[in-house]
Inverse folding.
């Protein structure tokens, strides 16, 4: 994955607080050993992908470079503002070796579009 731009937002854009609802909740869950220390965010906080229709991606040849984005959000604990704490714009290359899946009888299953990090 080639990162084109990355923005880390450290404070609430509305009130400049650094306290975040999910970040605090995650910290408490780690402190009580409900979650391992290497968890950075809850899954639902992360939105990422290639912002194109799947048909466009599936029909593109291997090696095609697509735009990719990742956005992670949280809620300000002081004023309730929802905001992105990290945004990344990148480029990803479609895998050249798409695995070919076969059923026991030999019939092809639909291929899966794969992406590799570049
Ligand atoms: Zn705030």
């Amino acid at each position: 994955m080639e990162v084109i731009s990355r923005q880390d937002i450290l404070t609430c854009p509305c009130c400049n607080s650094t306290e975040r609802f999910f970040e605090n909740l995650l910290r408490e869950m780690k402190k009580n050993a409900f979650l391992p220390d290497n968890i950075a965010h809850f899954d639902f906080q992360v939105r990422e992908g290639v912002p194109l229709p799947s048909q466009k991606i599936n029909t593109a040849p291997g090696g095609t470079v697509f735009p990719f984005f990742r956005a992670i959000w949280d809620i300000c604990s002081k004023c309730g503002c929802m905001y992105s704490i990290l945004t990344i714009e990148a480029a990803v290359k479609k895998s050249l070796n798409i695995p070919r899946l076969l059923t026991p009888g030999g019939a092809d299953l639909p291929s899966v579009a794969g992406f590799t990090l570049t």
User: Anything to note?
Assistant: The helical segments are 21-31, 54-59. The radius of gyration is 19 Å. Residues 12, 14-15, 17, 76, 78-79, 81 surround zinc ion (CB under 6 Å).
